[in-house]
Amino acid sequence: MPVAASAIYFLNLRGDVLINRLYRDDVGGNMVDAFRMHIMQTKELGTCPVRQIGGCSFFYMRISNVYIVIVVSSNANVACAFKFVVEAVALFKSYFGGAFDEDAIRNNFVLIYELLDEIMDFGYPQNLSPEILKLYITQEGVRSPFSSKSSDKPVPNATLQVTGAVGWRREGLVYKKNEVFLDIVESVNLLMSSKGSVLRCDVTGKILMKCFLSGMPDLKLGLNDKIGLEKESQLKSRPAKSGKTIELDDVTFHQCVNLTRFNSEKTVSFVPPDGEFELMKYRITEGVNLPFRVLPTIKELGRTRMEVNVKVKSVFGAKMFALGVVIKIPVPKQTAKTSFQVTSGRAKYQASIDCLVWKIRKFPGQTEPTLSAEVELISTMAEKKSWTRPPIQMEFQVPMFTASGLRVRFLKVWEKSGYNTVEWVRYITKAGSYEIRC
Amino acid sequence: MHGMRGLSVFISDIRNCQNKEQERLRIDKELGNVRNRFKNEKGLTPYEKKKYVWKMLYIFMLGYDVDFGHMEAVSLISAPKYPEKQVGYIVTSCLLNENHDFLRLAINTVRNDIIGRNETFQCLALTMVGNIGGREFAESLAPDVQKLLLSSSCRPLVRKKAALCLLRLYRKNPDVVNVDGWADRMAQLLDERDLGVLTSSMSLLVALVSNNHEAYWSCLPKCVKILDRLARNQDVPQEYTYYGIPSPWLQVKTMRALQYFPTIEDPYTRRTLFEVLQRILMGTDVVKNVNKNNASHAVLFEALALVMHLDAEKEMMSQCVALLGKFIAVREPNIRYLGLENMTRMLMVTDVQDIIKRHQAQIITSLKDPDVSIRRRALDLLYGMCDVTNAKDIVEELLQYLSSADFTMREELSLKAAILAEKFAPDLSWYVDVILQLIDKAGDFISDDIWFRVVQFVTNNDDLQPYAAAKVKEYIDKPAVHETMVKVSAYILGEYSHLLARRPGCSPKEIFSILHEKLPTVSTTTIPILLSAYAKILMHTQPPDQELQSQIWAIFNKYESCIDAEIQQRAVEYLALCQKGAALTDILAEMPKFPERKSSLIKRAEYSEADTAEQSAIKLRAQQQTSNALVVTDQIPANGATSPVSVGQLSLVKVPSLVTTENDTSTDRALSQQNGASSKVDPQPPSADLLSDILGPLAIEGPPGATVQSEHNAVSGLEGDSDAVDGSAIVVVEEQTNTVQPIGNIDERFRALCLKDSGVLYEDPYIQIGIKAEWRGHHGRLVLFLGNKNTAPLISVQAIILPPAQLKVELSLVPDTIPPRAQVQCPLEVVNLRPSRDVAVLDFSYKFGTNMVNVKLRLPAVLNKFLQPIQVSAEEFFPQWRSLSGPPLKLQEVVRGVRPMPLPEMANLLSSFHIMICPGLDPNPNNLVASTTFYSESTRAMLCLVRIETDPADRTQLRMTLSSGDPTLTFELKEFIKEQLISIPTAPRSPAPSAAPPTAQPSPQIPPNDPAAILAGLLS
């Protein structure tokens, strides 16, 4: 296994060290200074997450107001290091109950040290699963010192958890009401030219599950994906239903999914861990349903005036609606005055990001709100600098809509005792980097 | 700024930002706001405008781009109220630079303010113009500013600013002072009582005189007066004294201005100035207070610079050096640093070097200072002050220091030590010792140049070779040696170890085994050198040693398959050559002498990065190499004080042991004597001119070393010149030309040298010029040995070569001065372009005391020097002879009036011209057939054939036939031989038979035409 980290630092935005842990001796103690000098105080901050300074590699990531910096001196596996950071943050979040920021780190530093010792050894990542770690790192965050129940839990058996047949699920769980929640969350990445042709488009999706099931249930999930459907039709020797089938790329499953059965029968069957987990991830590049179309016209009238007209068209079903739509229309740096006319929502000029920001809280399907703005520019000394026209950016959430068209066909639960279960399915589509050139 | 709440809120917002990102967001927001406000149609109230422009300035000062709002800032300048005007001026001068178009809009407003009555506005305007005024401002505002500066009604505050403003305008456009009588007005300005105005005006004056001092002579006495006033601390208001020092800034500036005048002629002014300088020098001491120290030292160092510039009396100089000596002994590192740096600068002034030498011990201690910058300064100073007398001490000190020196300094240190050793070596073996020690101690820091150089010296000096070989053997015998040492040793032992062969432990076998031990430890760059060394050792082994041979062949065999191409090639070639046997001796013959070239070390030292003080040290070195150019430009009387060190860098000064063993006490005595002499003279002269007149000849007396010598060695002194020299100290002797009689016959010496390659070319009571020549094809290398026979230096030495058309002659640098009893070598490169009998002439002149000697000497670079004898067999001779038929390639002439001599003698004579007699080619015993090869650039190697038919009956006539592939060559060679046969060459005088009377020759009767006819019949 490759080395992931020689040292890990948690810094606040000013560059002060909140917590650090050295795993190996091959990096010096003044690494933070180097990071501060060469990365944080330069314009490069945020442009490239991997930088090499004086023989050491710095991998950094910003999470809310904390920089997590990994320093390695050897030829490390960068992906492994970033995965480690992401997983560690998820772990911390599940320990603190939600937020991961400077204050949370300050309040839980003892716990964090304990966890850091556990999740990495001599630079090699170890078990990062919150369920298992919580069994034997029992100290809980400050969030719930009084809500912790009396010690009626079974004596944790760490060895069994790690080595057992179903390492991710405890035995003997009992729920009064057996429920399964299944969310399909997709984010759409788009780059569209000003003419409306799609330059780049893909969807990354994940299926999140929340299980409250007794015993050792066996679940089986059916989707309208191409391989599964074809296999099914083969097995049942009847022609596939004429419906939309989705081709999934890069499918990744949670470790609980039985891969042998997936390979032979192309069905997703698994014994779920208790609580919340991510069942699978996938990517789709073909046949994406774009939720919005943006038609911008931006005219520069002389040196000091601009006219901006933007029409946004929602192309999903009329019964559905998008939430939290934000459209950011870039304007030149020397923008002085703006005046707007919008058919819905509100718009304003934000000087700090040099954008006209148009917000629509609730955006019904099959509508076409427009914005027209007049922008006045101030004359500057440096005339040469022409405006680069950065793309329009968009943020949104569309519930009960999947850009890929993925649907859950069935979710079967089978348990020895044969209890009834309630299954809940939700869909949501979000904007990833949704950009339209203008 | 009171009451601008928005501004203070904004500033406190910025200050409260947690990080840079927040700050940027806040600033962008504010900039957006400001843009919005400026764009407001309704316009802004002056208050708002002022507030936003202040904000812009604040943002700009935080480092953000502010590329708008300049219009607003400029428009504020014309506001009627002070607060707005102030912000307008300030922001404009911060945000805009002189090339901005916006500034044009402001010129008129600014002018109105300047000519207006309001003093505050005048100040604001002048300050802004003084900061960002450009050419256009200079053109339109200069007269107004000048008026303000000169006006008597203005307050000093305004005039002060006007002076500085004018300075800026002058820098932008030097024409602004091209006003009639400006120099006089400038002089008037210097009469100003107010020190503030005076300081500003002085800044202006410094700029003016730096460009053109001629126009401002009238200011000079005034400057001195100001200095006098300050130094006496008369009438200096309390606010202009800084820690008790009256306006140090003005003092420094005034002294700086004075340095731009080449000299001070008025004796009164000069005396006053020197009194002031004396006062400054006396009054400065190291005190506790840092600020006071800084101020007083600033003044002091400027005074030192002025003293150096003005070429003050020796006494004052020595006082300066003494002061600096005190400085370098102080504990405070800054002061020590300044002391050393200024001492290095002082080296530029000729007289003081001896005084500086007195502090040598202290300087050497500074080499061990904990502060690296001080160590560097000390090193520079040592480097700069080194000359023949102290080279040994200094270099040894540097060598000692090398082992403990900082790693960062070692390279520089070793380079400098190598240069000094090369330049001032009293004898060459010492030089070799030093360099070998250097390599031994700091091998890693020795660049290749250094060891190349030592190899060059060893190769070029025959007498050095055995010594060097023995020495490197000693070093390489040690168990662990540096690779560079292995390289040097391998080279030198390969070339010259056979010279040691008789010594114990130096048999070829032993040398080989010592070298071979090092082979496994060296890198691929050294192995080729080792291989060459092996081949040479093998070649020199006489009688051949089978065992050694098989060992070496085994090594070559092994490296024949080496992956490194260079090593492989050498191994293969050497192996093949070794097996050739006899041919090896020719191919692996000793390396030829290297052509003299400028030391690459010195070149390197010149190119290397250097700061001012170091530069002065390097410059000093450079000047020592060429001439005392400095002395001439600075109008210091050309004296011999620098002479002991001013030697061309190529030629090693071979100083007789007398000088090197001279003890310090005698030097000191000489110094005190000199000092005594000059102080005796001092009070007498009424004017500075006279003073320098008297000092002039005094200085010609030469360096103290020389005078001491002349005293000490009065007995051994050659002609009692020393008396004459001493006399010249007071009496100015008229220059005499060529009153010196040469010793020996110049003509004879020349003829002898035509046949020999070394000998004396010229000699007179003062100098002996020896010559040593080497010829190789059409190239020749002559070395002139200029030997000073006296105990006083020869100065103004000049040697000019007047070459004939066919020769290209390059004379390396001839030093201006030849130190007493020293010999200087001047190498001379000769290239023969085409055949001709013309002779090069050396125009040599020197000055001894006041005697100017000039001689013109023929250089023995004659035709026969480019001949190389060649043995031609009959099979080669006849086809050649036949192929060259008739004029102009073949010329025949009957020569009459030949000095009668027997045939063998004639043969001898010819072979002394490098013309080889080929016996047996001509059946007639009375005929001579000879051949030779002539080398020149145009003809390359050209075979020449000679046939001389003598008449046994009449020895005074003969027939000569010459043939070669080049018509000029044939003609020239014929004429040359004819000249030699007719005239009476001196060379054959030495062999006994030359004295034989012509009548004594036996004259067998043979028909004169006979032999010719026979040969002609045979050949044609």
Number of strands of chain A: 23
Mean pLDDT of chain B: 76
Name the chain pair whose interface involves the most residues. Answer: A-B, 19 and 26 residues
Helix content of chain B: 40-55%
Shape of chain B: elongated
* N- and C-termini, Cα separation of chain A: 46 Å
**How many helices of chain B?**
44
Number of strands of chain B: 17
In this structure, how is the largest beta sheet of chain B organized? 6 strands, antiparallel
The helical percent of chain A reads 10-25%
Helix/sheet category of chain B: alpha+beta
Q: Which value, in Å, is the CA radius of gyration of chain B? A: 40 Å
Q: Please give the radius of gyration of chain A in angstroms.
A: 26 Å
The average pLDDT score of chain A comes to: 85
Oligomer: heterodimer
Q: Are there runs of chain B of 5+ residues with pLDDT below 50, and where? A: 609-613, 625-738, 985-1020
Number of helices of chain A: 8
Shape of chain A: globular
Structural class of chain A: alpha+beta
Q: What's the N-to-C terminus distance of chain B? A: 117 Å
Structural notes for this entry:
- The complex is a heterodimer of chains A (438) and B (1020).
- With 438 residues, chain A is α+β, with helices and mostly antiparallel strands.
- Helices cover 17% and strands 41% of the residues of chain A.
- In chain A, the strands form 5 sheets. Chain A has a 9-stranded mixed sheet with strand order 11-13-9-8-23-21-16-19-18, with no helix packed on it.
- The longest helix of chain A has 19 residues, at 78-96.
- The radius of gyration of chain A is 26 Å and the shape is globular.
- Mean pLDDT of chain A is 85; it is low at 148-154.
- Chain B is an alpha+beta fold and 1020 residues long.
- In chain B, the strands form 4 sheets. In chain B, strands 12, 13, 14, 15, 16 and 17 form a 6-stranded antiparallel sheet that branches. A 5-stranded antiparallel sheet of chain B has the order 4-5-6-9-8.
- The longest helix of chain B has 21 residues, at 290-310.
- Chain B is elongated and about 125 Å long.
- Chain B starts with a helix and ends with a helix.
- Chains A and B meet through strand 17 of A and helix 2 of B.
